[in-house]
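Note to self: the last two entries modelled the partners one at a time, which told us nothing about the interface. This time every component goes in together.
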Amino acid sequence: MESSRRGIVYWLLGGGLIGSLASFLYPVLRYIRPPEVAQAAVSEAEVGAVNQFPVNSGKVVRFGSKPVLLIRLASDDWRAFSATCTHLACIVQYQPERQRIWCACHNGVYDLNGRVISGPPPRPLEPFDVHLRDGEVIVSKRA
Amino acid sequence: MAPAVIAKIRWWLEDRLGLETVKEFLAHKSVPRHSATMWYYFGGITLFLFGIQVTTGILLLLYYRPSPNEAYESVQFIMTQVDFGWLIRSIHSWAANLMILTAFIHMFSVVFLHAYRAPRELTWLTGIVLLGLALGFGFSGYLLPWNTISYFATRVGTDIAAVVPLIGPPLARFLRGGSDISGGTLTRFFGFHVAVLPGITTLVLLLHLALVQKWNISVPPKVEEEYQRKGQEVPRIPFVPDFVLRELMAWYITLAILGVLAALFPWELGQKADPFAPAPAGIRPEWYFLAPFYTLKLIPSHVWFLEGEVLGVICFGLLAAAWACLPFWASRRDGTIRTRLVTGAGVLLVSYLAVFSALGYWR
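The predicted structure of the combined assembly is written out below.
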C-alpha cells in the first residue's frame, strides 16, 4: 500500500517535471525554426538589354531571389537555366571556350540543354524560357 | 610594498581560497616519462591555442558587425584601419588552423599510443566531441567575413546537411535561418560561433580535463610491457614544475610559429560575397575539409538507387560513428586491446586524409 502510494507520487512528480520541461522546450524549439517568409511568386523577370549580352557569353541574373544562368549562343539563340548546381547548390557558370556549363565546386559539367555530362550532379538544371521584348531580355518560368 | 605586507596578503589569500589543498595536490601529481612523452604535449598545445582563439576572438568582436552589408567591410576596416588589426585577425585565422591540426595530432597520438583503452573511454568520447566542436568553430567562423569563398563553403556545407536522411531538410533550414544563405545565416553562424559553441566547448573541455585528471595520463602498452620485463616501474616526473615547464616551452614554441605565420603570411580577405556570381574556378574549402570535399567530387551522381551526395554523407556519418566508438570495438571481451586492428585503422584513416587532402588541393 505504502509503496504503491509512493509510486503514484513518483509518477506525478516525474510527469509534472517532464511536462514542465516540455512546456519550456516546445516554444524554444519552435523559436529556433525560422519562419516561412512569403516571397512574391515570380513568373518572369526582365534581366537587361539585349546588347548587354555578347554572343557566346553567359551571365548569372536575378530571377526574384533565385540565380538564373542566361546564355547567348548566337544572336538569336538564347538559353536559361537555374544557376544552382543540383549537386551541392554552388552557382554554375558558362564556359564559352568549351561551350558547356560548369560548376567549379565539384567539377560538375552540364551541356547546353542543362543535361549532366559528367561529375557528381544527380539531376539536370531546371530550364527557363527566354524571349525578347522591345530590346529587353525576358526570362520566364517554363510552363 | 614591505615584504611583511606581501606575506600577510599571501597568507590571507591562501587561507580564504584554501590554496593549501591545491598546493598539496599539485605537489603529489606526477606524469609518466618515456620515449613517447612528447605526444602528451599536443593536448595542452590545443588548449593553449583555444585560449588564443578566445582572446583574439574577443578583440575582433570590438569591431566586427554581423550583417551582410557590413560584415565584409568591418573585417576590411579591422585589417586596414585598426592598429594591428591585420595581426589580430591573422593570428585568429592561423591559430584556428593550428588548433585543428594539433587536435588531429593529439587524437592520432591517442590512437597510436592506445590511450583510449579502459577506463578512458569517456575521455576519448569527450575528445571526439571537442574535435567536432572545433570543426564547428571552423565552419561557422569561416562565413563571418562574408567573402566569396566563405559564402560558397557555407552553401555547400549546409547543402550537405540537407541531404542527411530524415532530418536533413529541417536541419539545413535551421542552420541557414531560412531557405537560402542570407543575412539570417550570417547572424545565426555568428551566434553559434561566439556564444553557443564557446559555451558548450567550455563545459565539454572541463569534463575532458577532469577525466584526464581522474584517470591520469595513460602509459602505452608497449612501454608498460618493456618496464614489466625489466621488473621496474615506469619512471615519473613531477607535474609541477617539470611537466608544466616543458608544456610551457611547447606553448612558447607554438606562439613563435603562430607569430611567424601570422606576420609573414597575413590571412587574406578575398572578394565580398555575391550571391549572384558563379563559384570561382579553383574554389576549395579549408585543408581540414579537403578530404571529404575531394571524395564528394569523385562519387558518381548515382550509385545504385542512391544519389552520390546522399551516399557520401551516409558513409561519412558511419565512418565518424565507428571512429567515435573506437574504444569499444578495440577491446576484446577479456579486456585486452586489438592493438594491430586499431593501428591499422589509424594508418588507413591518416593515409586517406593525407592522400585525399593532397588530391583535393592540387587537382
